[in-house]
Amino acid sequence: MLLLPDTPSLPRKILLAPLALAYAAGASLHRRLWLRPRFPVPALPLIVLGSLRAGGGGKTAVTLELARRLAARGKRVGILAYRIRGTEDLEVAPTSDWRESSDEAVLLARRSGARVFATRDRVALWKRLDGTDEFDVLLSDDGLMDARLAGAFRVALIRPGERPGLLDLLPAGPYRLTAAALKGMDHVLPFSRALVFPDDFDFAKSYRVLCGMGNPAAFRQDLELAGVKVAGLLAGPDHGLPEGDAERWRRSPDGAPGFLFSAKDGVKLAGLLGMGAPAVEIGERVALPASFLSALDVFLAVPSS
Questions:
Q1: Long-range contacts at 244-253 (CB < 8 A, ≥ 24 apart)
Q2: Do the beta carbons of residue 177 and residue 145 sit within 8 Å?
Q3: What angle do CA 287, 53, 123 make, to 5 degrees?
Q4: Same domain as 88, residue 17
Q5: 235 lies in a domain?
Q6: CATH number for position 149
Q7: For 16, phi and psi rounded to 5 degrees?
Q8: 199 and 241: one domain?
Q9: What is the CA radius of gyration of the chain?
Q10: Is 1 within the bounds of a domain?
Q11: What pLDDT, in 10s, does the model give residues 145-193?
């Protein structure tokens, strides 16, 4: 799978401009013809957490944090995640194989304390769960592109400086929506995170970064800003891992730089590393501003129609 640069060069944008414009036109037509809102809206509140980016926007991290906060308030939380492989709805367990759903779905099942469902049709699943009386609120990890989710509280995560235009859309850049889409959101949430390192982490050593997320460059940059010495980056496609490197990882000689990876990639790396150089999982902590939490309280307090 082709990895898109996080900050495409101007020549690349110019070269791929026709394809980016074709993507914008096709996505708009798809939304108008196949993703039109459907009524009535289910009574079960749904919060959609998405970003303008195709991947790596912080959606899973914010979904995880919000699920924990809502559960701590006594809410029965369900999470909708996209099913990468397979077509039928699947409830994901902490012990599920990530290849049957997705890496993020398994991570959410392990760490959120909520019930997690992987689906190709969030709208149909929302309606089905609405009739069970088993949940107080649903969270959707991604879904901003789906206009059928009318009546949901739609949250767009943005990183500092993100203002993508038409020439930043796929395949010229890493975005699915332009900044103009922010006008139609219920809340725009600036995304920031703090990396969490093990207590015995050795900042004097050098490390290689393994990354199968939508924004490898941002993960590397965050590590370097935290003081980590990065010796290299092995990046693969979102929801995947660098191809052809498994044997090299296993046979890393003693004394080679250790490996660092995110919790989401840790789901995929179980059993793969462990020989040669040490492997360290890096956690993350996200902040949810009081203004965002207040807006959610208002949404959840209003009975759905």
A1: 246/272, 249/210, 249/273, 249/276, 250/274, 250/275, 250/276, 251/275, 251/276, 252/276, 252/277, 253/277
A2: yes
A3: 90
A4: yes
A5: yes
A6: 3.40.50
A7: -100, 10
A8: yes
A9: 20
A10: no
A11: 898 898 999 999 998 889 999 999 988 988 999 999 999 999 999 998 8
Domain that holds residue 268: 194-286
120 within 8 A of 180, measured Cβ to Cβ: no
**What are the tokens at 210?**
């393994």
193-196, strands of its sheet edge to edge: 193-196, 279-286, 258-262, 206-211, 229-235
Domain shared by 126 and 235, yes or no: no
In a domain, 183, yes or no: yes
Total number of domains constituting the chain? 2
- One-letter amino acid at 11 equals P
CA angle 108, 112, 113 (to 5 degrees): 125
Return the biggest CA–CA distance within the chain. 62
- Confirm whether 163 is domain-assigned: yes
DSSP 222-273: HHHHTT-EEEEEEE--TTS--TT-HHHHHTPPTTSPEEEEEHHHHHHHTTT-
**DSSP designation for 105:** H
Residue 255: phi and psi, rounded to 5, are: 90, -10
pTM: 0.90
Q: Are 156 and 164 in contact, with CB atoms under 8 Å apart?
A: no
Quick one: 152 and 296 in the same domain? yes
Same domain, 47 and 186: yes
On whether both 88 and 107 belong to a single domain, the answer is yes
Q: Residue 242, preceding bond cis, omega within 30 degrees? A: no
133 and 199 share a domain? no
Q: Are residues 31 and 180 in the same domain?
A: yes
Chain segment 30-83, per-residue pLDDT in tens: 777 666 666 688 999 999 999 999 888 899 999 999 999 999 999 999 999 999
